[in-house]
C-alpha cells in the first residue's frame, strides 16, 4: 500500500521491520519493541533525518545499512544483540514546567 | 504529523492548571486536527472541565522554500499572528519546531516588549534533532525563555539550553 493513516496494526504483527530513516517510523517501531533495520539513502547524506538513525545505531537499538548492503545485513544479522529502547519521560517535562510556574 | 505527535506527548502529563489550551495550526495542515481532538476527547474523560480551542494561521514556510520568500511569508504570518496572540494573551506558549511556531512566538515576544502581555515561551526541540538545531530552533534559541533539547550533544553546543533527557 502507498499510504495508511496508521501503521500500528502492521507493526504489532511484524517480526522484523525494515524502514527508511524517518523519525516517526523508527520511533513507532522501537516503541513496539520490534527489531528494526534502517536503510539509509546514500544520496541524501546531508539529510538531518539521519541524525536520529545514527544515534539509535550508536545506542545499539537498530541495525543500519544502505540499499546495496541490505541483503548482506539480513544474512548476517544478530537481532538478539539489539538493545531495548527505553521510552521517553514526559513526566520530567511536566515537573520542569510546574517548577517554572511555581506549581509544585 | 511528527510535530503534533510530539507536542501531544509533551502535554500528556500536564495538570489541569495548563488550561484552556489553544492550539495553533497551519492552514494547510490536514492531519493534526484529528489527532488533537482525539487527545482532548480522551483528556475530557479524566478532567471534565477541560477546555481547548483551535486556530489556524497561514503556513510561514513550506519545506525547502527559498530564503528570501521565506522571510516574506514569515513576516506575513507574524502580522496574521499578532491579533491572535493579542486576543488569547497566553501565559505560556509551548512549541516544538514547526515553522508555524516562529511567527506565533515572535508576535508574543513583541507583545512582551510593548508591555502588553508577558508570555513565557518554552521551546522543545524535536527528538529528531540530535546534533544540529532546526531552523526554528536556531531562531527561537534567542527569543525563548526556556529552550529544551533532548540529546546531550545539543546541550554542549547550546549552553543556554535545558537538557532533561528524552521527554517524548
Automatic annotation (TrEMBL), chain A:
InterPro entries: Alg13-like, Glyco_trans_28_C
Positions of the Glycosyl transferase family 28 C-terminal domain: 1-90
Cellular compartments per GO CC: endoplasmic reticulum
Swiss-Prot/TrEMBL keywords: Endoplasmic reticulum, Glycosyltransferase, Transferase
EC top class, as a word: transferase
Record family assignment: Belongs to the glycosyltransferase 28 family.
PANTHER family assigned to the protein according to its UniProt record, in alphabetical order: GLYCOSYL TRANSFERASE-RELATED, N-ACETYLGLUCOSAMINYLDIPHOSPHODOLICHOL N-ACETYLGLUCOSAMINYLTRANSFERASE
Protein's recorded name: UDP-N-acetylglucosamine transferase subunit ALG13
Species the sequence originates in: Phainopepla nitens (Phainopepla)
TrEMBL record, chain B:
Keywords from the named record: Endoplasmic reticulum, Membrane, Transferase, Transmembrane, Transmembrane helix
Domain of life of the native organism: Eukaryota
Subcellular location: Endoplasmic reticulum membrane
GO terms classed as biological process: dolichol-linked oligosaccharide biosynthetic process
Bilayer topology: Single-pass membrane protein
One Pfam family matching this protein: Alg14
Entry GO CC: UDP-N-acetylglucosamine transferase complex
GO MF assignments: N-acetylglucosaminyldiphosphodolichol N-acetylglucosaminyltransferase activity
Gene3D superfamilies: Glycogen Phosphorylase B
InterPro entries the record matches: Oligosacch_biosynth_Alg14 (IPR013969)
Subunit structure: Forms with ALG13 the active heterodimeric UDP-N-acetylglucosamine transferase complex.
Protein name: UDP-N-acetylglucosamine transferase subunit ALG14
Organism whose genome encodes this protein: Phainopepla nitens
